[in-house]
Amino acid sequence: MNWQGTPEPHHHQSHQPAPYGHSGRGQGYPPPPAYVPASGPQDERTLWETASQTLAGIASGGRAAGRYRVTAVRLYVTEGIATTKTEQYELGWLYDIDIRQTLVQRARSIGDVVVHVRRGWGQETVVLQSVPEPARVRDMLNQLAAHARGPQQGRGW
């Protein structure tokens, strides 16, 4: 659509994505996100994703549950019901990952994954509440974080 709200005529174009730096909208525009190569530092394919399995989340049909997603580059944490907030954390910022489990959580094979994050301005703690198989999630995050930091940086102490 143009600025007046009327549709512009459709021009037949090939289904080939424009080369990087040439989005088809003129010179100097970055390519649309779908055209960014799916490898290297731009890799945002979902590797793992779940919703919190808290009793409140289950009772609300998932509306009160936190949602968590991991890509090869970032951890995304979405929380909230009426107003949602999504935080993203670079995997290289994760430096210590622990598990907390109550007796009820252990019986349900879920647990809290406690992620300590070190950003340039300080540290914070992010809790992935009541996720299935918390030990596997912890191990996956540790492995991805170590890979993101590279062989020279280790745990970043």
Explain how this protein is built.
There is one protein chain. The longest helix is centred in the C-terminal third of the chain and has 16 residues, at 134-149. The chain is α+β, with helices and mostly antiparallel strands. Helices cover 17% and strands 32% of the residues. Residues 1-39 have low confidence and may be disordered. It folds into 2 domains: 13-42, no CATH class; 43-149, PH-domain like, CATH 2.30.29.30. The strands form 2 sheets. A 4-stranded antiparallel beta sheet has the order 1-2-3-4. A 3-stranded antiparallel beta sheet has the order 5-6-7. The protein contains 3 helices and 7 strands, in the order βαββββαββα. It is globular, with a radius of gyration of 20 Å.
